Amino acid sequence: MIVNMSTSATAEEIDHIIERIKECGYQAHVIHGTERTVIGAVGSNGRRAEIEALRAAPGVQEVIQITHPFKLVSRQLRQRRTVVDVSGVKIGGGDLIVIAGPCSVESREQLMETARSVKASGAQLMRGGAYKPRTSPYDFQGLGVEALRILRDASEETGLPIVTEVMSETDVEIVAEYADMLQVGARNMQNFSLLRKLATLTRPILLKRGPSATVKEWLLAAEYLLAGGNSNVVLCERGIKTFETATRNTLDLSAIALAKELSHLPVLADPSHGTGLRSLVPPMSKAAAAVGADGLLIEVHPCPERALSDGPQSLDLPGFAELMKELGKQPLIEVRAA
Length: 338
Ligand code: PEP
Ligand code: MN
What we know:
It is a single chain. By secondary structure, the protein is α/β, with parallel strands linked by helices. The protein is built from 11 helices and 14 strands. The strands form 3 sheets. It has an 8-stranded parallel barrel, surrounded by 6 helices. α3 (about 110-120) runs parallel beside α11 and α6 (about 190-200) crosses α7 (about 215-225). The longest helix has 14 residues, at about 110-120. The chain starts with a strand and ends in a 12-residue tail after the last helix. The chain binds phosphoenolpyruvate and manganese (II) ion. The site of phosphoenolpyruvate (PEP) has 9 residues, from loops.
């Protein structure tokens, strides 16, 4: 980090900052310019927050960060890309991995039908919400444990590992008992006590980007998981809030490319929540693949018009099969309309 002293800083003020930088565990490199003095805080194991606080010290003009605040998720620390193994499916290993399934698990029939069909179309993992974060408390909240059992049964039958959301710290054990990968939803990206608890697991975590989170905040949320001991983390861009109202969110493709540049973790795209519109899911899936996404999270429902959540953005079964063909995925069998 660099501390820029103001042009009127006194020799005592400059000496004080040099002392503080050393106390915080860094070396101080001082450059005396013609107009002002600039002091670099050099080192990797110092107390960064205390250097940032020097903004408030007398004689300081500004404190500039020159390195990223995240460490373990950073590519500076680890050049080799992380491959996350979800019960045998490798995310980040070069193949575009497709996770498909309904927004919510609504019934055994609905989930089984979807599971068989997405498997036939070539999906490698299955999704389905058991605990739903809904904007309104009056909307369908999910079937809870019953949904977890249905998901497990669908996994036994199809061989597809399961991804499902865990909304609260108190549900971590039960969700981890049934799911192959635990999703942290966009609204919970900065639920730090949930992240700390998930960090104690070895189960892979799918960490969605918050709708108003910067890429830095997203990577720092992932840092909580790695710092706590769980390095099986996959990032997922799911659209952010912008001034645009024609789409539900704005799928931030540049954030996918940037996250891959800054971090060694795999990055997925969720074009379903990212757009909110079924017709935009295929083109944005291809766009995400083109900018380097390691996979896609796609909502699929046997009858989107009857879906209890997110019907307008869900593909139907033939629509998903068609997209998989367009993505160059070989369908196992022909999928027909229900
Ligand atoms: C979901 O995946 O169904 C979901 C609720 O996603 P998000 O947290 O991105 O809104
Ligand atoms: Mn949804």
